[in-house]
Amino acid sequence: MITASPSSRLSPPLRDWRELWRESITDAAELLEAAGLGGRTDLLPPDDAGFPLRVPRGFVARMRQGDPADPLLLQVLPRAVEHEAAEGYAVDAVGDMAARAGHGVLHKYDGRALLIASGSCAVNCRYCFRRHFPYAEDIAAAAQWREALAHVRADTSIRELILSGGDPLSLATHKLEELTRGLADLPHVIRLRIHTRLPVVLPERIDEAFTGWLAGLPLQKVVVLHANHANEFDAGVDAACARLRGAGATLLNQAVLLRGVNDDVAALAALGERAFAAGVLPYYLHQLDKVQGAAHFEVDDDRALWLMEALRARLPGYLVPRLVRELQGDPAKRPIADFAR
Ligand SMILES: *Cc1c(COP(=O)(O)O)cnc(C)c1O
Ligand code: SF4
Fold it and tell me: CA 284 → CA 12, 238, 252, distances in Å?
């Protein structure tokens, strides 16, 4: 009998994630070409000044060829409609700009402090508040972390430290090590949560150095991923999720409800099922931040509530995310409930 040798079952070595990041597509014509839409000059944006196109090639490879309405393509391709003004859509949609640009800690909710660990991302999502936030790229700095950690040290009500951004995993692992070394003498902090889209858009980021760091932390660990569509998952993402779970992390997913991307029952149901197949539970489904340039992605609350109702009828309760909106000054993410209609 022929049995597979252990080594043949190991996955091939990962390519260096920084190299892959550098090789990202940043040109709209090149993106269209890669998505099988090379002839469609009508889809080229007039200009994308201010918020450049950026998307790792591995993510582009998951797009359907030749489909201008592909749900992954729509999330990253700059479009002319972004330049149309829309009422109620502002540059600073959640009022975090000042805090984000300052020492980098947002302590809005009880027991949880959110640290803007890095302003960079591996992907530029067109619906994101970051589009008006170019200087955010510079946020990560050890000096600011000292201030941030001093805040967490002084407030013993903080049980959970959330690393967010931008994307905290855009930092080198040794920077993350530096940061969590400062947590070692803070016994009141029992949980570390990481909000990141990198395991989805660039799963090679979850390499051995990273999982070694994560596994070694004497804390409970939660990683909240960000995928908006089932097609964002593939074998590479599954493997990255498995590595994260192997390092002791509980995996959750947050998505943004986006017109044309995931605003139908089948797409949302498939996202929940697909995420769960990768060991990830749905957490939040966010109503869009009303940020200038993103109005064309809006799904109104009535339709959002109808979608949730249909989803509840279709999926086990644990695969139904919570529909929420972030409003300035609220003590928590605000659930959008039927009784509010
Ligand atoms: C979203 C958010 C959190 C986390 O909220 P949860 O409801 O616990 O996921 C914490 N701090 C800030 C500033 C946030 O925006
Ligand atoms: S913060 Fe998240 S949603 Fe915004 S650009 Fe980065 S990865 Fe995309």
Answer: 33, 20, 9
Is residue 121 marked as binding? yes
Which amino acid is residue 165, in one-letter code? Answer: G
pLDDT tens digit sequence for 153-172: 999 999 999 999 889 999 99
Mutual orientation of helices 301-314 and 265-277 as an angle, nearest 10°?
A: 50
Give domain limits for the chain: 14-83, 97-340
Residues 3-18: b if buried by 16+ CB within 10 A, e if exposed: eeeeeeeeeeebeebe
The stretches of 169-322 forming alpha helices (DSSP H) are 173-181, 198-201, 208-216, 235-246, 265-277, 301-314
DSSP β-bridge partners for residue 195: 224
The stretch 45-65 carries a mean pLDDT of: 91
Q: Which CATH architecture has domain 97-340?
A: Alpha-Beta Barrel (3.20)
Classify residue 319 by its DSSP letter: G
| Cα–Cα distance list, 276 to 168, 223, 280 (Å) | 23, 14, 5
Distance 208 CA to ligand 1 centre (A): 28
Centre of ligand 1 to C-alpha 107, Å, is 9
Distance between CA atoms of 35 and 62, rounded to whole angstroms? 9
User: Which residues does a 6 A CB cutoff place in the pocket of ligand 2?
Assistant: 121, 123-125, 128, 130, 165-167, 197, 226
pTM of the prediction?
Answer: 0.93
Tell me, using a 6 A CB cutoff, whether residue 213 lines ligand 1: no
141 has a pLDDT exceeding 60: no
User: Dihedral of CA 177/122/260/48: which sign?
Assistant: positive
- pLDDT tens digit sequence for 200-247: 999 999 999 999 999 999 999 999 999 999 999 999 999 999 999 999
